[in-house]
Each structure stands twice: as C-alpha cells, then as structure tokens.
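Technical note accompanying the year-one report. For the benefit of new consortium partners, we illustrate the data format agreed upon in the data management plan: each record pairs a sequence with a structure-token string. No post-processing was applied to the example shown here.
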Amino acid sequence: MTGSHRVVRAALAVAAYLFFGAAAAQGYPSKPIRIVVPFPAGGTIDSVARTFGQKITENWKQPVIVDNRPGAGGNIGADAVAKSPPDGYTLLISIHGLAISANLYRRLPFDPLRDLTPIVQLTSSTQALVVNARLSVRSVADLIALAKSQPGKLNYASAGLGAPNHLYGELLKKTAGIDIVHVPYKGDAPQLAALLAGEAQMAFMPVFPVLPNVKAGKLRALAVTSAKRSQSVADLPTMIEAGVPDFDFVGWVGLLGPGGMPGDLVARLNGEAARILALPDINERLPGWGYERVGGTPEEFAARYRSDVAKYAKIIREASVPLID
C-alpha cells in the first residue's frame, strides 16, 4: 500500500469515527445505563451514584443500574468498565484512589490512563491534619517542632497501607524532615478510634467525619491538605500556609467511561452531570456527604487525573512505599 493510500484510509477512519460518534450521541441513551461503583453498597460513593442515577433516569427516561463491584482497592470495578464497549452504557463513579492504584499495584489488568475516559469531576473534598487534643500543639509548626525534639516518638495513623492519608503522612515526614511512625489501620473508623484513644497522636483524615470530635474538644485540627482553604472550615489554614511547601492534595469523586469514548458522547454526559450538579437538592446533600461541587470540562478532569497519577507516583517512589502484587 502506498503512503497516499494509507493517508486516505486514516482520514476515512477518522471521519467514520466522528460521524458514528455524533450519531451515537444523538440517539443516546436508547437503553439502560449501568454505573459501576467499585465499593460496597451503602457507602457514600454508592449514595452519590444512586442519587445521580435517579436524576439521569428522571431526565432521560432510561433506567440507571448501579452495579457494586468492590475489591482490590477499587480496581475490580474499574477493570470491568475499562473492558466495556465505549458506547456510554457502562460508566464508572470512583474516587482519587484510582490515581494511587495506578502506582501502588505492580500489575493491573488495565491501564488506568489509557483505558478510562475522564468525563467530569463531580466533587472535591479535603483532609485535615488533626491531633489528639491532649498533645500540646496548636499549629503545624508546633507539631513539627515537637516531632523534631522527640524523633521516632510520635505515631501517625492511616486508613491502611497506600491510603491517601498514609501518603500524606510520608510526604510530611520527608518535607518537614521529621521522624514519625506510621501505624496503619483497616479503614477510617478504626483510625479515628485509635486517634481518640491516644494510640496515635496525629493523622490526616477527611474533614467532615472528624468535625464533631473537633467541636467536642477531643481532637484539634491544624490545617487542610488543599492549596485553597475549604469552604466548610474556612478558619483552618492550608498546609502550604502553615509552612509546608507544595502540599496540595484534594480528593475527588469522578465520572469516567471506557477508553476511546467519542467526544460527542463525553460532552453529552458531561452536560447532564452539570445539570444535576446545579440542582438545589443536590447542593443541599453534598455537604452531608462531605463534598463540594466541582463540575467543569472533561479536559479539566483529565488534567487533574493525570496530575494526581504523577503526584502519587512521586510520593510512593520517594517514600519507598511497598508495592502490592
């Protein structure tokens, strides 16, 4: 085949892709949509998926089926979507842990960047650096000074090896030059219990679950992990404001599809998500879930996703976090 023939064939393939992608978007959806949630039923992400699914059904008059596929840190559900046809009928609602899994597992049955299409970042959330109230510190600077004066004496709790708050603790150790001991627990609830009991003196934790204990004087919040102050705890400085440079971590819930989805289809789903995020009842529910509304374009979410994959890769590598087989 000559070079000119190859060029013509490539051009025809692109034209066909654009034509059929646009045609698919115009007739979409014509059958039920499945949203895969890679976590057990009953959790916050499951609630988000079911609420958004209900709103899609009300508007598009097609059933939305929430398919819970927990396991392997969310990878089982993500793999199911990655291997589905890119026709918009199988979608994924997942969290920023997806960007961690891309680096934490030695081998995955899918490529987290190539085999998934970011559609929209639905929400954001931040974590706070909190300490047991019996610890005599009032700021991040106080905590760093105390850790330097007692190397290896302070414990920091996490929700498990490779969890976001484990990686945040490792970054704090490296950036501040302190020696603190990581104690992993099996989830947020036992981590919080250990912090309240004084088994661990400090931890990074999602803001909303710890606020009642902060208000009750059992815990003390020192700073948030996002580059900008959180709307829900505007009085708390950021880690950057508190003197820890380049400490910018925001959790997210996002809608993704299989790799290779047509642009028109992605745009249609993105627009529907924007409509739902603007609904008053959704905005009333988001704070109760611990989230703030985001929205935005597919390109913005894709950039955030790629940035997080690179950011977590750096921490895992520099902190020598053991990889999972």
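Partners are asked to follow this layout when depositing records. The first strand starts at residue 33 and ends at 37.
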